[in-house]
Amino acid sequence: MKRLGLLWVLPVFLGAVSPALAAYRTKNVFICVMDGVRYSETFGDPEHENIPHMWNDLRPHSFIFMNFKNTGVTVTRQGHSTIATGTWQTCPNGGPRMSMPSVFDYYRDELGAPQSKTWAIFGKGLYAWLPYSSFPVYRDTFAPSFEAGIGEKVLEDDNKVLARLLEVMEKDRPSLVLVNFGYTDHSGHLGVYEDYLKAIRNVDRIFYEIWQRIQSDPYYKDTTTLILLNDHGRHDDSHGGFKGHGDACEGCRHIMLQILGPDTKKNTVIERPAFQIDIAPTVGELLGFQTPLAKGEVLSDCLASWENVNKKEARTNAMVRAVAAQQLAERDLAKVVGDRLRDTVKPEDLGQGLASELVHAALGIGGAGFRAPDTGSAASYAGYRGPYADIESAFRVIELAAIKRGDPALAKESVYAVA
User: Fold this and answer.
1) pLDDT category, 335, cuts 50, 70, 90?
2) Same domain, yes or no, for 112 and 62?
3) Is 396 found in the same domain as 261?
4) Residues 68, 229 contacting (CB under 8 angstroms)
5) Cα-flanking dihedrals φ and ψ of residue 404, to 5°?
6) Is 200 found in the same domain as 126?
7) First CA to last CA distance, the chain
8) How many domains in the chain?
9) Which residue among 323, 350, 381 closes a domain?
10) Among residues 87, 9, 7, which one has the least CA distance to residue 318?
């Protein structure tokens, strides 16, 4: 593989992973999410009554993180988006898309995998997750195959999700899969504790069946890593009990993580902290692609031999552009514009429009501050959309608001000069 400037000449996608990058035996990764279950009902239960298959049948082949946490927003859309991107996401259920590239983007971009080799299968509907981000470089270019809304209202719905997964495995032979089993969360919200436990036991059986299917299929046997986890937990008894979730209590944050596959240490349990943002870099490590914008770390503790494949380098045109865009996004756009105006225009020469507000804020001498978007403050809207907003849109919003408030020339001078 030859490197030319900032570009990498990549081998053609062959099977599940490029042979040139195959440092591990893993060629396929399945990420399976038991939605909305507390740690206290899984590995936190000394008797493991609700997960007999995960504890008795899968544990001898697996590595278990006993202190795995979601330290972000503890709801479904955020949890799955954080798992997929390796960054803490803040998108509420039914809200905006994830704002950063996902493992599907990185995988298909760097290794040339066709869409059919990547799948996201959700019991829950579109409110729970969308298959591509709003990040300006990637968007839907490398989105996975996607099916949502299979069902989450009754226990049988999780069985339907399993059936669909098995169909996809047989038809498309995917190498990177994200699966959501949603009834566990829904049953918790219904408030009948025994039904909630039955839902957990059912998905425990499903996880074991997935592993059995993998091991009985010559295509997947001994080349597939299975990652079993939760997106979020539920309130502990001191914060309202299992019926709800969404805060920072231990019940919502502390969740399970079990990893098993050909490159994973066997029959091992570890107490050290690990986090949802660590999943995406670990998937990149195993499949041989980079995750340059992920904030988490490779879970090297679980690997029999850590080869340090995922260095988070930008190895494609899209990755290089994405890193550049992110570096710009992480700058405080309001402060950037304010600094530019402070350096080029005297405060006494400014009017009472957007430019004045920005400069006063930058100089620390008061000003109206940055308000919500409906007030007409363009800079506040860029911030309101979050630190990973579409950069071009942020610029455009600032410019349009400045024009509306009578500063068109200044807007072009200040905004585009610092772009």
Assistant:
1) low
2) yes
3) no
4) yes
5) -60, -35
6) yes
7) 34
8) 2
9) 323
10) 7
Q: Is the pLDDT of residue 361 over 50?
A: no
Name the residue range of residue 296's domain.
Answer: 10-323
Percent with pLDDT over 90 in the chain: 68
> Does residue 43 carry a pLDDT above 80?
yes
User: Can you tell me the distance from the alpha carbon of 56 to that of 52, in angstroms, rounded to the nearest whole number?
Assistant: 6
Residue 105 falls inside a structural domain: yes
Long-range contacts of 79-84 (CB under 8 A, 24+ apart): 79/33, 79/230, 79/231, 79/232, 79/276, 80/33, 80/128, 80/129, 80/178, 80/180, 80/231, 81/129, 82/276, 82/277, 83/31, 83/33, 83/178, 83/229, 83/231, 83/276, 83/279, 83/280, 84/178, 84/280
Give one DSSP letter per residue of 4-51, joined into a string. ETTEE-PPPP-TTS-GGG--SS--EEEEEEETT--GGGTTTSTT-TT-
Which tokens go with 247?
């805060």
Domain stops at, among 295, 323, 351: 323
Could you give the 3-state DSSP secondary structure of residue 2? coil
- Secondary structure (3-state) at 225: strand
CB within 8 Å of 378: residues ≥ 6 apart = 354, 397, 398, 399, 400, 401, 402
Residue 376 pLDDT > 70: no
Whats the size of the chain, residue-wise?
A: 419
Q: How far is CA 180 from CA 98, 164, 228, 248, 255, in A?
A: 16, 11, 11, 22, 15
Whole-number CA gyration radius for the chain: 23
Do 238 and 314 fall into the same domain?
Answer: yes
Whether 218 and 91 map to the same domain: the answer is yes
Q: What type of residue is 219?
A: Y
- Residue 29 in contact with residue 227, Cβ under 8 Å? yes
210 contacts 202 by C-beta, under 8 angstroms: no
The answer to whether 330 touches 382, Cβ cutoff 8 Å, is no
Q: What is the DSSP letter of 303?
A: B
* Burial zone of 389 (CB within 10 Å; 0-12 exposed, 13-18 middle, 19+ buried): buried
